[in-house]
């Protein structure tokens, strides 16, 4: 689990606040009488009079008031710290409200886009978007400063005084929290990151170049936390907000901008005020989602009345009922400034997010602020400035000139005292033994490895498993850490099956050629390994070990295993542009186990059994993932998805008469992964892959045994209703589409939408072929396909149709469970194949 923390600055206690105001109907500007006005979390409340006026006294520890009335949507309004303040609140009528006969409500008109001046204004803003956004400049450049600060929030006195925090009292900060009591709560600032950059933009060709001049952040012990990955993850959550983009990516989702071309279809707009204290005059435009569960904003835009219809300011938040996990509050503020050309550029932006499992109690709160200075246009830089990667770090990590004196001189906004303390507090915190023990236990639970000096023992989920061939299986393993060496890493395990009474083992040694951990980007290493272990032919699991205990439970017959002896050498190189290659040489001996057989017909039609199969393989893998970001865990990289495709090419050559290899063949696999975003209709993850194998008389273990899944877990890359060893080919093409609608349909169904479930649809198809030279039905020079106990074949080539399976499912059940009903659409007459089934997957998502 990633640590994400938020800091909220402490507000000083003061006198009772006197809030005076007026409540009005947004559609007809009429007063709303007898509405309830109260401090959120308090029992203090007042009512409006016939003219919609109210006066409310609020204790200083409350920061919001809520206005509600029958037939209107409740509205929360933030209040300041001033002792006396006035405000005007516009309430939005609920859709399909039922008028009572006993209460006289203000006359309301049904909302419509037709002849609506607010919608007409929005359409003018949309029409002028291209000329108002920064991309309209031929050349632009500016200095950018960004800061992300995070920490635990809403902590009670009782929580702070727990025995476990006895040595950590220096970390806590007082804050005003809205928890329904008159006492002040605490925050625990725990992370901060700063970055200073020079940015250059060019219109033709469209190029953005960011030179990072200085950066610093609170550092955690790398043996527990990948600080670079943590920074990338935070930057993904707290992205730049461009109001002029049709879709705004935020907390790994896409929100429709209120000034997107289709926004009048999904939003309701109201003109709520005119600001004449600024030049040019501004129109205050309030907007609300038509469906409060959809991924949409609510808030206000301030539009210039100078014929340019530019956004001068924006305040965005989300509805309480939005189908968004773990986000208790979201607040965006954008401020634009007029330049010398009477056009507006973004001067400052802030994004605040409050994460929590529940609506009340302890949360995780964070804020990202970005300021833009020294904005210039029309300056054409040399082509060399725009060339190369879009983000370049000019600063070196060991640059001693980037001290606090440097930052104090270059920060446009000084850090608050408690923000300055975060850097020191994190260093101090990691010296406390109890905190080290906590991180050690957390690493064990989340990664499966237990620290033991210079080695790690694990992963623990593989210590016990079972299968039909080995029976009860015990395994113990571990690996070295950089405490032993930064350049050399070793990994090993040993396992024993109590049914087959055989020992299995694995041993590898890796030498890093760039003096970095082999698990950090960019990888550059040499590795040698030897393994003797079992494997199901064609099974390819995702992010898990095959002897994981939970995957021991399988459907159908699964007694066809291999004993593998593999000796392998490999060289891997990654580059900063996310291109990588891997070259490997392996010697592989496989022996059939369980009821798997290797048999070949002789000229007399008799079966000859083979006890082993030997091959020597040379492999080359190429991968290109532009702009890829990820969080590096103990074992795997967790990708942070973006809109860019990922391409890969794998080549494997069987080398006959080299180190005992018995066959010549050449296998090529070319594929691509891409995420497609469809705004309010969700997104789709698409994979396309093709495989071609050259060679004659190749036994089926060296052909393409298509990925099957006989567990009850839904696997994204495997065919969940295909049996092990069911299909083989020497040329194939496949597609895999996972379409997530993010609740777009379910959000429209009353009651169901309160569950915040989301729809997911998938279809997987593969079409292949098997040349006669490799098909035992046409030649006796290859191994026979597998048969069941009744002599019926259970391994096949494809005929003139593809294998297809589809599923429909629900995600976000209890916020992390996905359940799919999977249907197999053809090849239903083959023995022991399932026609449908239920599969489950754990999926955490915002």
TrEMBL record:
Signal peptide: none annotated. Coiled coil: none annotated. InterPro entries: CarboxyPept-like_regulatory (IPR008969), DUF5686 (IPR043741). Pfam families: CarbopepD_reg_2, DUF5686. This is Carboxypeptidase-like regulatory domain-containing protein.
